[in-house]
Design brief:
seven-stranded mixed β-sheet; Transcription Regulator spoIIAA; 10 helices; 376 residues; 3 domains; single chain; alpha/beta; Rossmann fold; Archaeosine Trna-guanine Transglycosylase, Chain: A, domain 4
């Protein structure tokens, strides 16, 4: 398997070069295996940009950006899409999301940091956006010896919120200060799918963030939607999104509370819902935190299942990279056993299509979304 990462223990010798520099990578026989960038400060000392006997590294970053964008094809100007998905698009360390013409960029590695100007120029030339805004305010940069950065990279500064259209939904996105690059675009197709289970349902959306699942459930005909998120700012944006889609404030139930506590209290009070959505942040970023993460997933799924009416639907997700599909299914199975209910898998989903997974890098397949129905 040709993994795009090379770890420190796998390298015999590194050249004297600044972190992020492009270098030729050769095997033990001196044969070139590709071109990548190095960072001796990181555990991942080499990341491939191209395989085989590539003669020149000139313009390599620009080519990766243009190719990734070309693969997305055309889409509506008021839509949101991921344009560059890091390793999934052969551009490690680069994430680019398009929110109705405003590009949000994350550069997470020394190599992408060094190529900042080339990447921005390629985006500006290829897309002609309203503006390009940097959201390199992620903890991964510290592992590369980099400081966090935000700000305008090209063009105008985006407004505080950008309105996008996602299927029938209109959503406000905080590009400058929202979570991730503004919205969890990897869940886009899963949000659309949920609306098909919401007709006449009493819905609970936990870890709701800006209410994307809530809006789609409401548009799908839910009779009541409750949204819970620990962030008061996120809840405020969720209320605005529901109101934007024609659901007035007096029809909303949005709570800035800890989702674990809300689920536990609701189960103790014997509340019942027809559709429960559980979409938490990553509980585990590495194997050292896996055991605690699995306990957390088991608990929230147990509580969610206990809240469901017979025939009710649970939409449960994990974005923890160490939690594989097999592991997550096992955790949910144990939660169902503890809840003393029989559950069928209606759908097993993952990332939206604009978040391609690199077959040689299992780490890029991080999102699991199970749609389950309680049948007994």
């Amino acid at each position: 398997m040709l993994h795009p990462w090379v770890f420190a223990g796998e390298v015999a010798e590194l050249p004297e070069a600044a972190p992020g520099s492009l270098v030729r990578i050769v095997d033990a026989r001196g044969r070139q295996t590709g071109i990548g960038y190095l960072n001796p400060r990181s555990k991942i000392v080499l990341r491939y940009l191209a395989r085989g006997g590539v003669e020149s590294a000139e313009g390599l970053w620009s080519r990766r950006i243009r190719e990734a964008i070309a693969r997305r094809g055309t889409y509506a100007g008021d839509a949101a899409r991921r344009l560059v998905n890091a390793e999934g698009d052969g551009a490690p360390g680069v994430i680019v999301d398009d929110y109705a013409g405003w590009l949000s960029v994350q550069l997470t590695t020394a190599g992408s940091e060094c190529a900042r100007d080339e990447i921005v120029a390629a985006l500006a030339q290829t897309r002609g956006p309203l503006g390009i805004y940097e959201r390199s305010d992620v903890p991964e940069r510290a592992l590369e010896g980099l400081e966090q950065r935000t700000g305008v990279l090209w063009g105008a500064e985006p407004p505080q919120t950008v309105e996008i259209r996602e299927g029938a939904a209109r959503l406000l996105v905080d590009v400058r200060e929202g979570q991730k690059t503004g919205l969890f675009l990897d869940q886009r197709e899963n949000r659309l799918a949920v609306s098909g289970y919401a007709r006449d349902a009493r819905v609970l959306n936990t870890f709701a963030y800006s209410g994307g699942f809530s809006v789609h459930a409401a548009l799908g005909g839910a009779r009541e939607v409750t949204s819970v998120d620990i962030s008061a700012e996120a809840c405020s944006l969720a209320r605005r999104n529901l109101e934007l889609n024609g659901f007035p404030l007096d029809a909303q139930r949005t709570y800035a509370q800890n989702a674990f506590d809300f689920l536990r209290r609701s189960a103790d009070e014997r509340e019942r819902y027809d559709l429960v959505i559980i979409d938490p942040p990553a509980f585990a970023r590495g194997r050292s935190s896996l055991e605690g993460a699995l306990r957390g997933y088991r608990e929230i799924n147990l509580r969610g299942l206990k809240l469901l009416e017979p025939g009710g639907v649970l939409v449960t997700c994990s974005c923890s990279r160490p939690v594989t599909r097999e592991i997550f299914r096992e955790v949910v199975q144990r939660a169902a056993f503890d809840a003393k209910c029989s559950v069928q898998i209606v759908e097993e989903r993952g990332h939206a299509g604009d978040h391609p997974v690199l077959l040689q890098a299992p780490e890029t397949d991080y999102l699991v979304c199970l749609i389950l129905r309680v049948i007994a």
